[in-house]
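Sample entry (116 residues):
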Amino acid sequence: MGDRGSRVGSSPCNRKICGKSVADRRKHLRVHSGEAPYGCTICGRFFKQRAALNSHVKIHAGIKQFVCEICGKACSRKAHLKIHMRIHNGERPSGQPLGAWGAVCRDGTLLRGTSG
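Predicted structure, serialized as tokens:
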């Protein structure tokens, strides 16, 4: 399959279907085995990586560290803020008809690309 994602000091996955070079082969093999050793003590959900569990726990704690500089909406994940920012820059969510989402943000600011 090739040497996708090659890194210095990495080793190949050795799986015919994968072929990736990874820094931590043992951790990467969880992708294939389904092993998820990190469990949330609040809801019981399990994760393959400790970082994913740490991010998840912030949801239970109500931590929303990523804040929109335009309207002040707070998100628990950077990816969610990135999606929210599409509203302000005039992009519409993929597959949504133009009228399917509002032209005004929660704080009442008029969004770019709209009239009124």
